[in-house]
Amino acid sequence: MCVTRATVCEMCPRGTYSSRGSASCTDCPTGTYNNQEQQAACTNCAQNTYMEFLGKTTCYTCPLQSTTSGTGANSVANCTCQGGKSMSSDRACVNYWRTGVVHNVPEQDLLSGGWTKCPLSKLYSDQTLTRQDLMCGKTKSQIESGMRFAFGAKRTGSTTIEILAMGSSQVSTGPIPVFPLPLTGARNESNPRIDAAGNLRSDPFQENAFQAVPKLENGVYWYITAAAFGFSANAQVILNDQDSALSQCEDRLGWAFSGPGHRVGCRCSGGSSVPSQQKASGCSEDIVFSEWERIMYWLA
Fold first, then answer.
1. What's the rounded Cα separation, in Å, for the pair 211 and 188?
2. Which residues of the chain form CATH 2.10.50.10?
3. Banded model confidence at residue 267, pLDDT cuts 50, 70, 90
4. In this model, does residue 202 exceed pLDDT 70?
5. N or C end of the chain: smaller count of CB under 10 Å?
6. What is the pLDDT of residue 181?
7. 193 vs 148, which has greater pLDDT?
8. CA dist., res. 274 & res. 127, Å (int)
């Protein structure tokens, strides 16, 4: 339809509608679209599509292997993965995915879900982790094309991962802007692939390319500095080298780059050590290196 302005009837553009005699055009609501001018109503998004924004001329298609239960979906959350799969933070249906910091995960669950264990996973007893190790032999282009990662720790010889968190190296589906996450983060917050001088960075692990500011991804606060890498379920991450916060200790993990240092939980006040079974009470030991193994998995 058109709207009357003085004596002129102006056509409503695509993405809007108006009823007869209306003085203005109205944006199509979420869950609908309109790809023609001069319409009296918008059309519901078809099954297997959704639209999260107002005034659109088309709908987004649900991620591969997912669909909606009907028409008019207004969020990607309405797209349900099929075949028992779960939707990752970069909107892909995968066999095994968890949000937030999780505990006591059978390592076989990751392997059965198609995850590949990084051969650079190391015992803490005598080997130092580097920033490059986090990439697990992947190239910059592979990571920036979009992969999923899982990091954590388990007791040496155990088949159960004691603490684990997952994330995606790039989120680019639908309306989410493309941005590599903590492993490729940089100083320019609007586009982390661009350095402070406005140039496309060639090395995602270049020292000084990172802010000591945690980045939220998949319900987890991740950080990487020149000295350490880690994550927390709590936004209160206190960084000197590793996270030194003293709350929600059971949901924190940190790896030092300068030596074999590692921490599951909080560091005790004054740097003293306590048995690991006291971790839940708010304070855990600096790791006895021979007891723990780093966990690094990737999923294309």
1. 9
2. 1-82
3. low
4. no
5. C
6. 39
7. 148
8. 23
